[in-house]
Specification:
2 domains, Rossmann fold, binds S-adenosylmethionine, 325 residues, single chain, globular, four-stranded mixed beta sheet, eight-stranded mixed beta sheet, alpha/beta
Length: 325
């Protein structure tokens, strides 16, 4: 049987149908990031409550040179691949350090949102015209698999970045599949720098996902509005409340939209009707917090060696540098 390549909109239809038909209902977080969602996420990164960005910026300011030293021991040139780059705000700090340390690089930011990649390219063109950028729009592994087929990128030393606690959005099973897949794509002695948000007081964690100005609430509702825009849906966001919880045992922050009344939603492009009873939930996103031992277990379970862990001054966040064994 021929494998069928789906368009982005067909995949969005299938995933939305699957998620809303499940019990309990869920939506996949990768669809947060249309043009509007990417803009709202930039607002989230600027919120005082969203400690993750400041912590990671501090880590790069304090440690970029140390990360580069590990790489420069073996290589003077590297392919810098970034999974879910967003606007590359932290990567820019690292790249400035690479330029100062004369580590040659080519930068391949990969993101599902073409709008945010356009913004990244425009910014780098002004700030770092000397850096060669080959931005790729698409899903992480679809792009990585296609890069693997390109002769230009075969047997070239790589540093893969996966920043901003993107890994926290995965379930344990998805994390294992993701890291295993990455191991199979990388060559021995390739590097991987991954961000983990660490377990800490719920009083610090919760406002980052449920802020008093309602920016995170808007981010979640934008997913429903995107379904209205792109799949001809008729969600009424006033009929849902945003709710966030933190479980200190599992380290999971979970975001939900809860129906505050009975409602019926029609999604025209998939010809489906979904009924919500009062207090039914739609599970929107998990953002998992890690302990150091959780993190190191993920590395060792999947053929990576931890070279060094880097922390911000508050010890809120960790960027962990791994090497593929
Ligand atoms: C939480 S933001 C983090 C952005 C950036 N890494 C940072 O730390 O500031 C997640 C980014 O990953 C992208 N993304 C989410 N799921 C993706 C997927 N499956 N494939 C490619 N990009 C994805 C989103 O568009 C978004 O820009």
């Amino acid at each position: 049987m021929k494998s069928q390549i789906l368009t982005a909109i067909e995949q969005f239809q299938i995933d939305t149908d699957l998620g809303l038909s499940s019990s309990p209902a869920y939506l996949r977080p990768k669809y947060f990031y249309d043009e509007e969602g990417s803009k709202i996420f930039q607002e989230i990164m600027n919120m005082p409550e969203y400690y993750l960005t400041d912590a990671e910026i501090e880590i790069f300011e304090l440690n970029s040179k140390k990360i580069i030293e590990h790489i420069s021991l073996t290589y003077d040139e590297i392919l810098l691949l970034e999974l879910g780059s967003g606007d590359g705000i932290k990567t820019e700090i690292f790249i400035k350090s690479c330029i100062e340390s004369q580590l040659q690089l080519k930068y391949i930011p990969i993101d599902i949102s073409s709008d945010i990649l356009d913004e990244l390219k425009a910014k780098f063109k002004i700030n770092h015209p000397e850096i060669e950028i080959d931005a790729r729009v698409g899903d992480y592994f679809q792009v990585l698999e296609s890069l693997k087929q390109e002769s230009e990128y075969k047997n070239v030393p790589k540093l893969v970045l996966f920043l901003g606690s993107n890994v926290g959005n995965f379930s344990n099973q998805e994390t294992n599949q993701f890291i295993e897949h990455l191991k199979n794509i990388l060559d021995p002695k390739d590097f991987f720098l991954i961000g983990f948000d660490l377990k800490k007081s719920p009083s610090v964690i919760l406002p980052a996902y449920d802020d008093p100005r309602g920016i995170t609430r808007r981010f979640n509702f934008n997913h429903l509005l995107r379904i209205n825009r792109e799949l001809n849906g008729n969600f009424d966001i006033n009929k849902f409340d945003h709710h966030v919880s933190y479980d200190p045992l599992s380290g999971e922050v979970k975001s939900y939209l809860l129906a505050n009344t009975n409602s019926t939603v029609v999604i025209g492009s998939i010809d489906k009707v979904f009924n919500f009873n009062k207090w039914d939930s739609i599970y929107m996103e998990c953002s998992r917090k890690y302990s150091i031992s959780d993190m190191e277990k993920v590395a060792s379970d999947h053929g990576f060696q931890v070279l060094e862990n880097y922390f911000d001054r508050n010890q809120y966040f960790c960027n962990s540098l791994w090497i593929r064994k």
